[in-house]
Design a protein that fits this description.
The chain has helices spanning 46-53, 126-130, 133-146, 163-174, 186-196, 208-214, 229-235, 261-266, 275-281, 283-298, 315-323, and strands spanning 4-10, 20-26, 34-44, 69-77, 96-100, 109-113, 117-119, 154-157, 178-183, 199-202, 220-225, 239-247, 269-272, 306-311, 330-334. By secondary structure, the protein is α/β, with parallel strands linked by helices. It is globular.
Length: 336
């Protein structure tokens, strides 16, 4: 095995990626209870970009390798930890695995704790696997655990042409909801309609009136909102009586405020969604969530749409594309 590998390394925090560079680093050695994974592909997520700016809640020590989500094969194992629980089935050399941590994915090799690795669903190739877990887990926690989506309800998905929104569209369809997807780019919405066969709304034409017209004045029962800002403001005016508004994130940049007479008058709930924290607070259900999304991937429900692929040598541009909001589906970095 080679002694060094290519990796994207953040040395200083900046808003323009000027502190991030591609370079050779030493291949890490797995410690006790760890595995060395040869990374095949990594997906680019918004937290990866925020961490290079110092704008994410988790602030890794500098320097660090970004990349919270990747997929690859186990190529070395560290010593077993005494009294460590055994994975079922146990992970072995050569196994395809999902790597989901806070950093480290944008490299040809990465070490991870064995209990942080999971077998890759056999229905997914490496690029799909790298793009799968974060989006699918967020969609599952949002729609099933927090939103209690029921068959026949109307689900409004904002940011639907991004990776997380796309996963929510797929899961909403599977659960039997009527799915209405929104976005700000007609060309991206057209591609989503072509692939997923759902109704769409161009936000440029106004949200409230379109939703009310499409639902006969009733509004949406469940709203999945990773956008915030003006989209949130319009959502509270087109939500159904007794509806649930899922606060997933603030991609628009503005954290909205709400006059509390609106949820009082319309009887709707505002529900926060933090998929990772959900699993940390409730490990039993967290494990059940992962089992559920893996089964849904095997069944063909979750199929990450990869809009753009980059080589590792182009990893800076992959982050820049995300910063410019040019993403359709998921952006993936392939290591070879």
């Amino acid at each position: 095995m080679t002694n060094s590998c290519l990796a994207l390394v953040c040395h200083t925090l900046s808003d323009d990626l000027s502190g991030v560079s591609l370079e050779r680093i030493a291949v890490p050695s797995p410690g006790p209870g760890q595995a060395l994974v040869q990374i095949a592909a990594a997906s680019v997520n918004f937290p990866d970009l925020l961490m290079t700016r110092g704008g994410y809640q988790f602030k890794p020590a500098l320097p660090f390798v970004p990349g919270l989500e990747a997929a690859g094969r186990i190529v070395a194992l560290g010593e077993a930890l005494p009294d460590a629980p055994t994975a079922a089935p146990p992970l072995r050399l050569g196994d395809r695995v999902l790597v989901h941590g806070k950093t480290g994915g944008f490299a040809q090799y990465a070490c991870a704790a064995l209990d942080a690795l999971r077998p890759t669903p056999s229905a997914l190739d490496d690029a799909q696997a790298a793009a799968f877990q974060a989006a699918a887990t967020t969609a599952y926690v949002a729609l099933v655990r927090r939103g209690a989506l029921q068959a026949g309800e109307t689900l409004l998905v904002h940011g639907a042409t991004g990776g997380v929104g796309w996963a929510a569209v797929q899961l909403g369809k599977h659960l039997g909801a009527r799915v209405i997807a929104t976005g700000s780019r007609p060309d991206k919405l057209a591609r989503l309609r072509e692939i997923e066969g759902v109704e769409t709304i161009d936000l440029g034409a106004g949200l409230r009136d379109q939703v009310l017209e499409m639902t006969g004045g009733r509004g949406a029962d469940l709203i999945f909102d990773p956008v915030g800002g003006d989209v949130f403001d319009a959502s509270v005016r087109c939500i159904a009586w007794g509806g649930r508004l899922l606060v997933v994130g603030f991609a628009a940049g503005r954290i909205p405020q709400l006059a509390m007479n609106l949820p009082l008058i319309k009887g709707f709930s505002i529900v926060g969604v933090r998929a990772g924290e959900y699993g940390r607070r409730d490990p039993v259900r967290g494990a059940q969530n992962l089992q559920a999304i893996d089964a849904l991937a095997e069944a063909g429900v979750f199929r990450p749409y990869i809009g753009t692929r980059f080589a590792l040598t182009e990893a800076l541009e992959a982050l820049a594309v995300l910063a410019r909001r040019e993403v359709l589906g998921k952006v993936v970095i392939e290591m070879t």
